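[agent] plan:
  1. take the single chain provided in the ticket
  2. run structure prediction with default settings
  3. attach structure tokens to the ticket
  4. add a short note for the reviewer (M.T.)
[agent] executing step 1
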Amino acid sequence: MKYSYFIIIAFALSLFSSFRPVKPCEYAGSNIGFVKTQTQKAINEEDINISRYYTYKAIRAIENNKEQLNTCGCDYAATSMEDSFKDLVLATKANTLRSTRIFLNRSLEKTIGSLEALEKHELHDSNYASDVLELNTVNVTNSKKSKAGPKGIYLHRKIDSSLIKYEASLTNIVKNVDCKDALNYATQIYEHCEEQLLKPNLSEGKKYYNLRTKEITAQAIEQLKNCK
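[agent] step 2 finished; step 3 output follows
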């Protein structure tokens, strides 16, 4: 049964190519969320070498996310992640687990601060106003721009439609599959989406697909968080 759900995901991913970039702050936020997750794993490890492994994953994620943050335009979030990056690098050079955790906790605080800054930034991000304006204005002198918005909306709806079956299947798993197995399954999909969203050359269609899949899966994980 589990394989059929992965087939649904793989099939839908193959359907979509690229279109106009949308909501760069959401993509940046997803990648910063990955940095947060890897940093937390590093903090919780008792083996300094494994802790460094997760730390390096967080470092690479920040390096891959710079362009997204610049596109988003939230200066505070970008600055916080630069500081977080420096602390992560220091953590890899620390000789004891205690010292490593000190730097990791400092980095985690800045990463969380960056996420909070992005949430506030999205409330007044001019990119959204531009999207709405483009969808509601017919520019006779620039037909390409006037077509970009509706095309993007159409493809978004197509992706959302493709995920209806996945969401229903995931709901069924949450209700009927052993709690731990369901949590493990959902977590694997969530982490896969995070990994995909870190790829710098991912098409906009796949970005949106993975972002929406991640959001749907996060809801399932929330339902399973008290799993024993």
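[agent] step 4 note for reviewer: Confidence is low (pLDDT under 50) at residues 11-22, 124-149.
[agent] ticket updated
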